[in-house]
Write a structure and sequence with these properties.
four-stranded antiparallel sheet, single chain, globular, 24 helices
Amino acid sequence: MIKILRENTFARNAILYFVVILLAAYVLVALGQAPATVQSDVVTKIGTQEIRIGDIQSEKIRTRERYAQYPEQYRPKDEQLNMLASSSIITNALIAQAAQDAGVAVSDDELRDYIIKSRTREDGSYMSDEDYRAAVTRQYGGVAVYEHYIRESVLRNSKFQLLFSDSVYVSDSEMRERFEEDGKLLNADMINLNIYAFREESKIEDKDLEKFYQANKDEFMSGPQRKIRYAFFANKDFSESAVPTDAEIQTYYDANKERPPYFQATRYRAHHILIKEEGRSLEEAKSLIDKAAAELAAGKAFDEVAKTYSDDATNKDRGGDLGFFSKGQYANTYGEVFETKVLGMKEGDVSEPFKAAQGWHIVRLDTIVPEKQQTLEEAKPNISQILKNEKGKTLAQEAAAKLHGETVAGKTLSEAASAQNVTLADSDFFDRNNFSMISQTLGSAIKLKNEAFAATEKEKDAKLVDVGVGFVVFEWLDERDAVVLEFDPASPRIKQMAEQAKGRNLLKQNLEKVAAKLKSQPEITLEELKKEFSFLNDSNCRTTNQFGAKGMPFQLTRAEVSFDDLYARAQGDLVGPIYGKEVANDGYLLRITEKLVPDETAFEAQREQLLAQIRQEKSLEVMTTMLEGLRTKLDPNGSRFDKIQEVCAKIN
């Protein structure tokens, strides 16, 4: 077990990260959203825990929202987002399965106590049945869904965590060390700049690209490179001969005819104006919606009124356009009252102001598209292609598994391929960059790259990898150090690297100018700096208060600096410019404004808090070790994770 954990650091860290995220979400459940439990297809199972399409869709939305507060350059890209969401789903399922295996159950009394507490407001008043139903329907899709989630996830998983925390020992010296560490805090003015702040100035015309390349070749280095020998089993090569029978097509149609694309429910298109009550009095909200209604009655265009008054940031700039939607799509967002009202309108109707879960609405129903059911003949071409693709993928996987099985049995990849008359090919040298091509046939295949760089022995331990369009059986063949990339005017990588290199130069030049200003005028404020330098704003120029070794501003986690380095400086010192750890795409300046030391007299008062904090951290470590072992048992080759990630990638 320990050996597996040490060798698979990424998987372990991912589980630890999401255990922390998920348990934090359970504590703050009234502020978050529960995983969807709507009826939909089961994608896969982790033990007895079913993972449904709705679960994946809900988690992807939550993961995207979790990073929405970050500047754009720090947000995960599509592939990273899919990986993060999939890891979260797997971890949640593992916790649920482990809790179930341990016999952890939640009584009706425990659930009732939790619900009572969740319905009690901060001022002591109790939420009415109507308000409670509206609130949980908006966030969770319904009372039954919410209460099932509280019982099966929140309360059961919290009780499960207690099994670990109750068994952890914490010494006095550990608490003392943590107290000293937590008491060392800094206040600082921080400037963090990224090359994207100079995006426009960094652009290079195609005609100037080669000149820049020739003058800056050291900026065009690849990463360390590897080469593989592989056999590729393309799904399409097998699907052409995999013709489905009429009976198979009929069976598929019967099972799916009530789902898209074979059945299209009635669709509606509408515009709306939303005035929220949050942050204003009931009278103010009603006055605003009445003003909007009066302007509409006077003949002003709906789009213009929506842009002026609406609080719905998701569609205000589009004049309140909700796009096309079906029944149920907006019930969670705006509440059942909103949906009932809209679905009861006729084409062209403009509603009177009405109140729903989020506030006051005016809706214009533009279009109603009636439901449509495809006949078998209409659906047949689509179903036939789906079944061909599925059969082709299955046959490709079986052929790849047959070859891979021979290598597991002891043959080399070359011997196994020769015996089965399978053609092998050698890739180009490639690195981890998304634009780096493995070969013309395989393209960049990021998952395959990751596996190739995880290989530990050359020409041994062949691996089987699903690359989406087929399956690859490969072995690591060779490696070499980073090289200067060849110039290719059509290469998006060369263009990107050139503009990033120019951006780094601009970043350094401008950060040095700011540093010089801070040195010459130590008393200058951040507000004054923002006025003097146009590239400084509230997002990259701020005061950070009382951060310590465990609470470094997230921007600094990318920098070549530790908290100990900063704490060693004196109050008033200017630190920097300092740059990103691997590539200097980020730059930082810090002015230490206050240095706080531990208050020894407070140790005893904080003892219980320190004990609980350290005990939780230790229990998470133990829990993570157990969950990683369970994952190895329930998803040994990662196929369930891959399936979740595959579905996640198809969800917008």
